[in-house]
Specification:
Helices cover 37% and strands 23% of the residues. It is α/β, with parallel strands linked by helices and 218 residues long. A seven-stranded mixed β-sheet has the order 3-2-1-4-5-7-6, with helices on both faces.
Length: 218
């Protein structure tokens, strides 16, 4: 007989498959609030279908989005108005980052796919003086606080799915089609490594199995 926890897990997976909502897009407006009212240039690393890049274009004169997936990059171009100051390129991070500086760099739910320290160093080197780096990341649960936030996120996740989809079944958005893998670094490890590379960086655990990092280049 299947144990109740397994049945509950399968029921939740079925529920969210029918009513998906983008956990990463949930943080997009939060990201904008961390940024200056206007910026000259912005770089979105792991841009996916371009949702955040298009939002950044409301703040920045010029936005570049990069992603390693040619198909999702092509979709981002299709979804972006020709008049928007946004360009996209297929590139790997950190080796394929543009060799120029930016006033804003964002990276959402991508850093755990990349060499952590090397990527943060590349972000640091490409951030213009006075610029802002904002990361929304995924960490491996380890501490009681991690597990408590995960438990609290489960019912909130259901509520958000119902609200975002108005209780109806919905198609999976383009922004959620990229392959994913579990994080292998704990929040404590991330905090230690990030503060070594980015002195003064502010990191915080968040609901919905995410953490945030904000760093300003003085």
């Amino acid at each position: 007989m299947t144990s109740p926890p397994h049945r509950v897990l399968r029921a939740l997976e079925s529920f969210h498959a029918a009513r998906p909502w983008d956990h990463n897009a949930h943080f997009h407006r939060w990201i904008l609030r961390r940024l200056p009212a206007r910026a000259g240039s912005a770089l979105d690393v792991g841009c996916g279908s371009g949702d955040l890049a298009r939002l950044l274009a409301t703040r920045a004169d010029r936005v570049r989005g990069i992603d390693a997936d040619p198909a999702i990059t092509a979709r981002a171009r299709e979804l972006t108005p020709a008049t928007a100051p946004v360009t996209y390129a297929v590139a790997d991070a950190p080796t394929g980052l543009p060799d120029e500086s930016f006033d804003v760099i964002t990276c959402v739910a991508v850093l755990h796919h990349l060499p952590f320290t090397e990527t943060l160093q590349a972000f640091r080197d490409r951030l213009a003086p006075g610029g802002t780096l904002v990361v929304v990341g995924v960490s491996r649960e380890q501490t009681p606080t991690d597990h408590l936030l995960g438990i609290v996120s489960v019912p909130l996740n259901i509520v958000m799915a119902l609200v975002r989809n108005r209780g109806r079944r919905a198609a999976r958005p383009a922004s959620m089609t990229a392959p994913t893998r579990p994080a292998d670094m704990t929040f404590s490890e991330i905090l230690r490594e990030a503060c070594a590379v980015l002195p003064g960086a502010r990191l915080r655990r968040r609901l919905f199995w995410r953490y945030t990092l904000v760093w300003r280049h003085r």
